[in-house]
Specification:
The complex is a heterodimer of chains A (about 140) and B (about 400). With about 140 residues, chain A is mainly beta. Chain A is built from one helix and eight strands; from the N terminus they run αββββββββ. Chain A has one domain. Classes of the chains: A mainly beta (about 140), B alpha/beta (about 400).
């Protein structure tokens, strides 16, 4: 599953997400009809079905809802990266996303620890990875 | 027209790696077993409903193109040949559609079947398939998401919130294996211990290999007809008492609480419709493919309090002879994972228990059973309560 095949990179509904990512900013979708926020980007609001979704920048700060380190049986394109740690991050603004957490000290990862977004280039896309927040174990100094 | 439907016959082939066993042979075998088991003449079948086959796209296409009507000698007597695909919830969907067609008078006798052959795929092709099934391809797969990380992420959070130790997850695998050791059609039948489970390598932390499942080949079938016809065919028809179903987020990561999902809502609906409570359930047939979700389902359906399911399993209550016999076919960890058909096989096992045909693993006097299914990446929560008597 190479990102170079990802349809969303050239799709109108996701343009606001990828444009923000290229500027190093994480953006979430906001529904102008019902007021709910959501990630990942979609064509309609998952709450009310409306199409008038706009993008809003968020802080990139959140907490580690859960994590799992893949040590075997990875998909083909990720075998060389094992072990790597998948995560669900809850943003301070509310929405959650499935992502990757990079840490110098994976054994120090704990649910609910503070994390922050860092962008990584992969297969022509700028992806929101997360790391432990500055000042926490395993995070940047 | 208002009338009751009943399951009258079941069929199933052994699960495992059978490269020489053809998909059509599986399908014909389980179909004829189910018809014979129910005493149903094939010419009585007016509706043929089939689960999807994931590993062979051409066989899957054939199913929709009425090949089995021809292969089973049902030309012209069948009026509807269709496929029902709800992923892992397919068994629940087949039952709902078949019962609905019979009770509304649109069908008299419905044959539902499944056949799968995962040995068509290499192990790596299997990992790759399940890295895209129910996982968002633009925003989740690019991080290296793997299907086994779904129970991994869930277990990490659940253990954090409840304090449940990893040994109690291992106990679920051990209990399921004990049931499977009594099941001639299960893929893995060699008894194992908690130590064996924890000695197997970690695949997606905190989960060990023996807390996951292996893809296999298999298939099963069941026949649904009217209650009146059922009574003339068999002494052991099985009736649906209540169903509760929720279809929610496509991406499992988007559940409000991954350690609960929608099981309490689905359970409440099923119990309310059936007019029974957890205390009335004689056998609990969970199909969920990973131990962590067994604990969650037992708690969310009210069989025990939050955080207490692990101790219940560790005490042996879900094993043969326990107070809450659970997953008597071993669930996918021991039965083997046959794609959309584990849920069909679980329905077959549920009916088998209620028909008093489960041999060595028969739960004595089982008269009310609850079965679960989950579809997609846990988008669907399905609970059904079935009984030996009409409701």
């Amino acid at each position: 599953m190479s990102l170079s095949n990802a349809e969303s990179l050239s799709a109108a509904y996701a343009a606001g997400f990828w444009e923000a990512a290229e500027r190093g900013v994480l953006a979430i979708q906001h529904c102008e009809t019902c007021g709910e926020d959501q990630l990942y980007p979609r064509r309609r609001c998952v709450t009310c079905g409306a199409a008038d979704l706009t993008y809003r920048p968020v802080s990139g700060l959140g907490s580690l809802y859960s994590f799992s380190t893949v040590l075997a049986n990875a998909p083909s394109d990720f075998i060389d990266e094992m072990p790597y740690t998948l995560a669900i991050v809850e943003l301070d603004e509310g929405p959650r996303l499935l992502t990757r957490i990079d840490s110098d000290d994976p054994a120090a990862l704990r649910c609910d620890m503070p994390v922050q977004c860092v962008f990584r280039e992969r297969d022509g896309a700028t992806l929101p990875y997360f790391v432990p927040a500055a000042g926490t174990d395993g995070g940047p100094a | 027209m208002s009338r009751n439907a009943a399951v009258v016959g079941i069929g199933e082939v052994p699960v495992g790696k059978f490269p020489d066993r053809q998909l059509l042979d599986i399908a014909i075998t389980v179909a004829e077993q189910a018809l014979e088991d129910g005493g149903v003449d094939r010419k009585e079948v007016d509706t043929l409903l089939m689960a999807p086959c994931f590993a062979d796209p051409w066989f899957n296409t054939d199913l929709g193109f009425a090949r089995l009507v021809d292969e089973l000698g049902m030309r012209a007597t069948v009026r509807l040949n269709a496929q029902v695909n709800a992923g892992g919830s397919t068994g629940a969907a087949l039952l709902k559609v078949a019962v609905g067609l019979v009770e509304s008078g649109q069908s008299e006798t419905v044959l539902c079947l499944h056949a799968e052959k995962f040995t068509n795929l290499s192990g790596q092709e299997g990992f790759d398939f399940f890295a895209k099934a129910g996982i968002e391809r633009d925003f989740e797969a690019p991080f290296g998401m793997a299907y086994n990380a779904i129970p991994g992420l869930t277990a990490e959070r659940y253990m954090y919130e409840t304090g449940t130790p990893i040994e109690q997850l291992a106990e679920v695998s051990v209990a399921c294996r004990e049931w499977a050791s009594l099941h001639p059609n299960a893929m893995f039948r060699k008894p194992m211990t908690v130590e064996d489970v924890l000695a197997s390598k970690v695949i997606a932390s905190p989960l060990h290999a023996l807390m996951l499942n292996m893809l296999g080949d298999g298939g099963s079938a069941f026949v649904v007809t009217t209650e009146d016809r059922a009574r003339s065919l068999t002494e052991t028809p099985v009736y649906v008492w209540g169903e509760g179903d929720v279809v929610s987020t496509y991406s499992f990561a988007q559940h409000d609480d991954i350690t609960r999902m929608n099981w309490s809502v689905a359970g409440d609906r099923a119990f309310q419709q059936a007019g029974v409570t957890p205390e009335d359930i004689d056998v609990l047939e969970i199909y969920i493919a990973y131990p962590i979700f067994h604990l969650i389902i037992m708690e969310e359906l009210g069989f025990c309090a939050r955080g207490e399911a692990g101790a219940l399993v560790a005490a042996g209550e879900t094993r043969p002879g326990g107070s809450l016999p659970t997953s008597t076919n071993g669930d996918a960890m021991s039965y083997g994972h046959i794609g959309a058909g584990v849920g069909v096989a679980t329905l077959v096992e549920t009916c088998r228990q209620l028909m008093d045909k489960a041999g060595e693993r028969q739960v004595p006097g089982a008269s009310i059973a609850l079965k679960t299914a989950a579809g997609g990446a846990y988008s669907n929560a399905n609970v059904a309560i079935l009984g030996r008597e009409p409701r």
